[in-house]
Amino acid sequence: MNIIAENKKRIFMKVITETERLVIREFEFADLEDLYSLMSDRKVMRFSPFGVLDKKKTKKMLLEFMKSYRENGFGRWALNDKEKGDFVGLCGVSIIELDGKKELAFGYRIRKEFWRNGLATESGLVVRDYIFKKLKIKRVIALIVEKNKASLKVAEKLGMRFLKRSFFKGKEMDVYEWKERAE
Q1: Beta-bridge partner residues of 22
Q2: Is residue 172's pLDDT more than 70?
Q3: What's the mean pLDDT in 170-182?
Q4: How far is CA 142 from the centre of its chain?
Q5: Distance CA 140, CA 133 (A)
Q6: Which CATH superfamily is domain 3-179 in?
């Protein structure tokens, strides 16, 4: 979807989809500071297998997101508050290697000030539908640290099912999956 969405603060050039409260769009290089603020926050990154990211690693990640859009037609997308335009976080999919094979992995990060408002579930449901219906992808996994109770609840609300326990980037992770459902 190449829509231009405008709000009070910014014009978004490549909107993927929207929810009731969020614009889900491709990251742009201008998002580096917002992304760095998110990825360098110790509370947000507490359970991440990558840990807290410095600015150089954040820039590399942003460039990987943008490369994935060009090469795959999907990636991790930016979330912005529809009304105010504020950067809320990210949500989407990326290709990872797990147990010796490539997998499409769902993930999200939400800024602390937006926690406990249902935005991870709201964006996740719309991303799930977009992945299955628009991109025709049949299966997606998510990696969650067992102690991350909030993400476990989100996975459950999104309809993900526990598959197995594995290791990713040296951390023990629970692997959940979505499979496309016949309608």
Answers
A1: 81
A2: yes
A3: 86
A4: 10
A5: 13
A6: Gcn5-related N-acetyltransferase (GNAT) (3.40.630.30)
The rounded distance, in Å, linking the Cα atoms of 118 and 123 is: 9
- For 1-30, the pLDDT digits (tens) are 333 444 445 566 799 999 999 999 999 999
Instruction: Find where tokens 């016949």 sit.
Output: 182
Residue pair 120/91 in contact by the 8 Å Cβ criterion: yes
The reported pTM is 0.90
* Strand boundaries in 26-100, DSSP class E: 76-81, 87-98
Please give the C-alpha separations between residue 153 and each of 93, 110, 125, 145, 156, in angstroms, as whole numbers: 19, 15, 13, 12, 5
Q: Under DSSP, is residue 52 helix (H, G, I), strand (E, B) or coil?
A: coil
Strands (E), the chain: 3-6, 11-18, 22-25, 76-81, 87-98, 101-110, 139-144, 161-168, 171-179
Q: What spatial distance separates the first Cα and last Cα of the chain, rounded to whole Å? A: 24
Strand ranges for 85-159 from DSSP E: 87-98, 101-110, 139-144
Long-range CB contacts (within 8 A, 24+) of 69-75: 69/14, 69/26, 73/135, 74/131, 74/135, 74/137, 75/26, 75/27
pLDDT tens, position by position, 115-159: 999 999 999 999 999 999 999 999 999 999 999 999 999 999 999
